[in-house]
Amino acid sequence: MPRGLGNTCAQLIVLVQVKRFLKVVSWCALALFVGAQVIRPDRTNPPVDPALQYRPAPELEKILRRACYNCHSNETKWPWYSNIAPVSWLVAGHVRDGRRRLNFSEWRRYSEDRRKVLTYEVCEAVESQAMPMPSYLWMHPEAKLSDEDRETICVFSGQ
Ligand code: HEC
Fold first, then answer.
1. Which of the two ends of the chain, N or C, has the fewest CB atoms closer than 10 A to its terminal CB?
2. Alpha-helix runs per DSSP H in 1-159
3. What are the 10-residue block averages of pLDDT along the chain, 159 residues in total?
4. Atom 11 of ligand 1, residue of closest alpha carbon
5. How far is the CA of 137 from the centre of ligand 1 (A)?
6. Is 71 in the pocket of ligand 1 (CB under 6 A)?
7. Residue with the nearest Cα to atom 10 of ligand 1?
């Protein structure tokens, strides 16, 4: 067999093997994706007791509702993509941790001291632009805060 032909054959064999490999990888990825949908995180909103929720001045409440309530209250508006794993796990994790850390729907359960600390931390978090989480702002441009919004938040927190 001429040498050139031998090389071409070898290349063809490799090509077929790579294609077969990619096919297997794609099927595995698809199977994993479909299988992942079975694991559904908790996406419930506990009931809101009006007697417990945070009731600041309307201009402050408006900003907080727009920028923070999806993760820091029991009034989460779950986006459509929070139905789809693995994004659903990420979103539900943020809401779970956010609520655990600060829940405006259960504000009056906190002690007087705790509320003071949290109010201070809220100003800190927005001043440092740690909150709203930068990754959240990608999908929620409406939650962006202006300098004026940040100032309003901090004035109300007494800073
Ligand atoms: C996408 C969900 C999400 C949004 C929106 C969001 N937060 Fe958070 N927030 C979190 C999570 C998750 C934590 C807990 C972080 C941790 O424990 O490391 C947190 C923690 C905090 C804390 C505790 C201190 C800290 O920095 O860890 C404060 C205060 C806070 N957020 C304020 C706010 C305020 C104010 C807004 C709106 C301007 C906001 N957050 C918007 C998810 C969010």
1. N
2. 3-36, 58-67, 69-72, 87-101, 112-127, 134-139, 147-156
3. 86 95 97 96 95 95 98 97 95 97 98 96 97 95 97 86
4. 98
5. 13
6. yes
7. 98
